[in-house]
Amino acid sequence: MEDYPSNETKAALKRGETLMIAEINRVFDPAVVELAAQAGFGCTWIDMEHSHLDFSALSAMVLAARTVAVDVVVRIPKGPYNQVIKPLELGAGGLVWPHCKSAREAAEFVEMAKFQPLGKRGCGGGRDSRYGTLDFVEYTAKANAETLLGVMIEDAEGVEDVEAIAAVAGLDLLFVGPSDLAHSYGVGHEGVHIEHEKVQAAFDKVAAACAANGLAMGTAVGPGAALRRVAQKGGRWFNCSHELSALTHGYRVAREAAGNIVADL
């Protein structure tokens, strides 16, 4: 179906590629999506769990992403059904469900996000269906095939049940949240969360579950030794930068460089 956009990010995962993802966490302006594309990112992770983002602003960002051929994956709040379907009807290419603690929760998420026969998603006639003008049978099949779904493993319970979670049909990504996981283990006060031995052991368990079920493992980590370590464990999805750090770094570098020039006069 030519009118339904292909999800290149999901296709790349299926080809076994490793992806670098740009997070957008607080500055919800369409220009940020365009700038991420100019920097070479093909996918943006837009956060609705921890942020003030509303659906009107998300809609504008999805439209911006379409102009620069960038996929949009939305981390949604862990909430009711309408929190799941609204980003999809606005045209988001994927969803990530936080704090997945069991296979039952993962299956419920898939059921809400996929149409029959994979789930029980309702039909709303949004942007993703060209406002109800696409052939219904072709549209629902294409939506099921192209929508990327991930769940976050960021609780001890999720790690414990990760083999069963990874076996849930319809998932593409298991995303380890190292900070929340460290707090779940009661070691959040012990330094860099992603490097803690308990968190690293969790990565090993998640990686094995992903490998056994053909899923990708992801996490949020900046460039450096920690990213390399997770990649060596099999990680293929890395939220490696976000707009807040990019802005802060850019401003800091420019300020320091300008100050050094003036100081040398």
Oligomer: single chain
State the helical fraction. Answer: 40-55%
Total count of domains: 1
The side-by-side strand order for the widest beta sheet comes to 1-2-3-4-5-6-7-8
According to CATH, the fold-level topology is TIM Barrel
Rg over C-alpha atoms, rounded to the nearest angstrom: 19 Å
Low-confidence stretches: none
Amino-to-carboxy terminus distance: 63 Å
Query: What is the number of helical segments per DSSP (H or I, 4+ residues)?
Result: 12
Instruction: Give the ordered list of helices and strands.
Output: HEHEHEHEHHEHHEHHEHEH
Shape: globular
Determine and state the CATH class: Alpha Beta
Mean pLDDT: 96
Strands, count: 8
Q: What is the name of the CATH architecture?
A: Alpha-Beta Barrel
Strand content: 15-25%
Care to describe what's here?
With 265 residues, the chain is an alpha/beta fold. The chain has one domain (8-263): TIM Barrel. Helix content is 46%, strand content 15%. An eight-stranded parallel barrel has the order 1-2-3-4-5-6-7-8, surrounded by seven helices. It is globular and about 70 Å long. The mean pLDDT is 96.
